Amino acid sequence: MADCRPADPEATDSRTSSPLAGKKRAQQSPVPRSKYQIPAPGGHCLRKVTLTKPTFCHSCSDFIWGLVGFLCEVCNFMCHEKCLKTMRSVCSCMTPSLVRVPVSHCFGPAGQKKRFCCVCRKQTEGSTALRCEVCELHVHADCALFSCADCRSSQADGTLQQDTFHHHWREGNLSSAARCDVCRRSCGSSDVMTGTRCEWCGITTHVACYLSVPAECTLGRLRCMLLPPACVRLDSRNFRKLHLHRITESPEQDTSDDLDPSAAASKEAPPAAAETGKQVIKVCDGDDAVKRGFFRLVSISRATRNEEVVEAALRSFFLPGDPQDFELQEVGTVQRLHSDDILNRNGGPANQTPPKERGPDNRTPPREMGPDNRTPPREGDAWLLRLRPRDPEVIKVFAGWNRSFASVSVSKDSTAETVLSEVLRLLDRKDEDVSSFSLMEVYMSSKQVQRQTLSPQENILEKLQEIRKVSLRQMNQTRFLVVANRKGGVQVSLLIGGLDPLLSREEYEALIQEQLTAKSHLVSLSHFYSSQGAVALQISCFSEAERIYLLARDTSVNNKSLTSLVIPEILLNRLSPDICPLLVFVNPRSGGLKGRDLLYSFRKLLNPHQVFDISNGGPLAGLHTFREVPRFRVLVCGGDGTTGWVLGVLEAVRHKLVCREPPIGIVPLGTGNDLARVLRWGPGYSGEDPAHILISVDEAEEVQMDRWTILLDAQDVSEDANGFLDPPKIVQMNNYFGLGIDAELSLDFHQAREDEPDKFTSRFHNKRVYVKAGLQKISCSRSLHKELTLQVDAQDIPLPNIEGLIFLNIPSWGSGADLWGSEVDSRHRKPRIDDGLLEVVGVTGVVHMGQVQSGLRSGIRIAQGYYIRLTVSKPIPVQVDGEPWIQPPGHIIISAAGPKVRMLRNSKQKQKKSSASKDGRSESPSSRGAGH
Ligand SMILES: [Zn+2]
Ligand SMILES: [Zn+2]
Ligand SMILES: [Zn+2]
Ligand SMILES: [Zn+2]
Ligand SMILES: [Zn+2]
Ligand SMILES: [Zn+2]
């Protein structure tokens, strides 16, 4: 649901009226839509119905006792008789006029959870349902066209300058535990679509109560970490929203930007045969629908008056208006492209008529069916719904600066220019120069918002008639907007990755020139990250930016495909100093589907521009976006490998950041997670409320942590090239470094994972495989101590009889085991993660390792030190932070890696297993309603 408030109450005066007032006027037209209908606010067509099964009220969420309810024939809204007085819910046919800032949705396949469609208010079923990946709007696939572009506006809209940030209300799909912020009674339900919630601050209220909430949204509990939309600037023209939000397109995602006949056609199977006395006709809403074979099936009783047929047709397209103003014209055969069986089942006389004898293209005068025409429609015929031409007509023109609107009369002589000056006069800006404003036509389709500036001479009445002829749905989703002409040029920033690392600025410039044929007067290289093989381009022309963006994605350099991302600009002067935005990285491939769910939840809870899918562009995309933010924190959702990846990239690019040491928190996904355990983020994610996770991050304390560099100087790699496969020469270590049996187990496990990646979706399954791989090793025996010499802080250390040697930075190893042990001994200091020392521990074999894992024993303490030298005489398996390989003979040196890093440690004691985790639906009423 859109914001149903008067767009800007202060601006509302006698000449400019609020959308609600406009709606009431529509309802108070002298002739009600039909004689059954009860005039109702919100544009609903309510009818008194007898209830045959238990029903809940969509307005107050209570049970409807008794047999009488009021049902909207357009959107299926249902309420008590007593609730008619307080009803504030807005009908689906009216929502386009209430959008504050039109922003399209990014539809993807919905989950399996029970949700309600925002268009028809009925429950969605898994396979045919869609949900927006930014705001979690739920719709049926065939309802998507009729939803409007009311997604969250996560960046500053170029036209709207406002000081107050308004709530963005969205109706329905609240948790059943939700309470009304106004009357404190329960306002959520899992049985019907009821209640409303602000998409930013998360407060929930009854639809009848929300007008009592102060207009300004304070962004709620998460304000301190939320990147405010007003601070984000993103210039775009034809970039799809998926690209602007860096959302990876799933294969099943619909790539067309508009009508998709197969998805859009009516899902209601023709009940023709089943219901006696009923017949089904096909209705198109304009020439575009006829061309595409897109129609809605409208079921009517045979004896229906034509006015009621027109009314039913309007309802099926979710169109407001008086049936008197519309008419139906016969168009003959509509070729339905995707489902011939419906045509056949539904076959009527029109189907046997060759299309060329009829239809809009061959000048056969169409048979008209208006409210006064008594010719009943024949079954199977296709009809075209048209608005009867009027002259003059009244259109609403919205003001770009505050979203008030003026109603302007348009006659056949009206041009964009005359409309513009009339609107400025009505909006009290008559002293201003008309030429510094433009009239814009905005098509607010749910999948793409199209803005077009009208030239001053454009004839408005013709324009209106043209849009209506194409599609009445499109007309309902189109608005006219007055905007002040913008100063300042276009700036689009792209981050191009996948280039060769370690080149100079000139070499990168030449590479971009050569590979992407960039026009040098439009494109400049603003930043380059040679360690990452990435450059940032600043482009002062939309079409050049779009061209480079797409071309880069199709280009490979040295067999590596390039990546390209659109980077938003963060306006620092609008970022309040008390806000410390959270930069979130999620690895959607970690922890099965949990990573993906967290990605959606964080996009919804925070600003999607601060949430990065790490599989799309890596950590650099986020760090580059935040490069000038004076203070921020980082949250990494993934396994130890993902955390190591972020720490590594941060280390490499920190000298280019204003905030060089952002503290880092972790949501552990996948197996292992030793670092997350040490920092008290737990062993893994088990469905906690994502809003609670963010609050824990806000309350977390900062701690320092050592990091280590391992130099691997292999001799004679050529000796046995088969086993080695290019071992790394320098690696960063955060957790531990293991040699011998410990690494061998992770190597086996790693290979199994590479072979069958699909099998490793559950954390617990992963673990079982790990143990099994270990058992197979029991029979093997080896003496690692004979193949190694160890020097700690320049002292030779004799090794006992061991099969594995491990260097620990943190007191957790192999999924939470305490290898060093808690015992106090006089020779060693108590281990800390920030003491600049590594603990050196040995294990005698797999049995010993198993005992350590189960807490029966600890490892053999060998030494503590800050500078380690190892000499290896045979190829041995090694692992760093769980990432294994075979290391050829040679020298290994471990030393501190630059400054310590700042990490976030959860300051709460580990919460008791919340019942919340069962289905992820429970939450406290005051929480932000993640996942709903
Ligand atoms: Zn009620
Ligand atoms: Zn309705
Ligand atoms: Zn629906
Ligand atoms: Zn959305
Ligand atoms: Zn709010
Ligand atoms: Zn209430």
What layout of secondary structure does this protein have?
Elements: E1 16-17, H1 19-27, E2 46-50, E3 68-72, E4 78-79, E5 107-109, E6 129-132, E7 138-140, E8 169-171, E9 196-198, E10 204-205, E11 232-233, H2 241-244, H3 261-264, E12 278-284, H4 287-292, E13 296-301, H5 306-316, E14 326-330, H6 340-345, H7 349-352, E15 368-369, E16 382-387, E17 393-399, E18 405-410, H8 416-426, E19 437-444, E20 449-453, H9 460-470, H10 472-476, E21 478-484, E22 492-497, H11 505-516, E23 523-529, E24 534-539, H12 542-553, E25 556-557, E26 560-561, E27 563-567, E28 569-570, E29 582-586, H13 594-605, E30 611-613, H14 618-625, E31 633-638, H15 640-653, E32 664-668, H16 674-678, H17 690-699, E33 701-705, E34 708-714, H18 721-724, E35 730-733, E36 736-740, H19 741-755, H20 763-775, E37 788-792, E38 795-797, E39 804-808, E40 838-843, H21 846-853, E41 860-865, E42 867-872, E43 876-880, E44 883-887, E45 890-896, E46 901-905
Parallel strand pairs: 12-16, 17-21, 29-30, 29-31, 31-32
Antiparallel strand pairs: 1-18, 2-3, 3-4, 5-6, 6-7, 8-9, 9-10, 11-28, 12-13, 14-15, 14-16, 17-18, 19-20, 19-21, 22-24, 22-27, 23-24, 25-26, 33-46, 34-35, 34-45, 36-39, 36-43, 37-38, 37-42, 39-40, 40-41, 42-45, 43-44
Helix pairs in contact: 14-15, 19-20
The protein binds zinc ion (6 copies).
Short description:
This protein has 932 residues and is of the alpha+beta class.
**Contiguous helical run count:** 21
Q: What percent of residues are in strands? A: 15-25%
Low-pLDDT windows of residues = 1-33, 252-274, 334-367, 370-376, 719-725, 755-772, 777-781, 911-932
Distance between the ends: 14 Å
Let me know the largest β-sheet. 6 strands, mixed
Ligands bound, unique: zinc ion
Q: How many structurally independent domains?
A: 6
Tell me the structural class: alpha+beta
Q: Give the overall pLDDT as a whole number.
A: 80
**Helical proportion, percent range:** 10-25%
Number of strands: 46
Which sequence of strands runs across the widest sheet? 1-18-17-21-19-20
Shape: elongated
Write down the oligomeric state. Answer: single chain
Which radius of gyration do the C-alpha atoms yield? Answer: 32 Å
Family: Belongs to the eukaryotic diacylglycerol kinase family.
Domain DAGKc: 577-714
Enzyme class: transferase
Subcellular location: Membrane
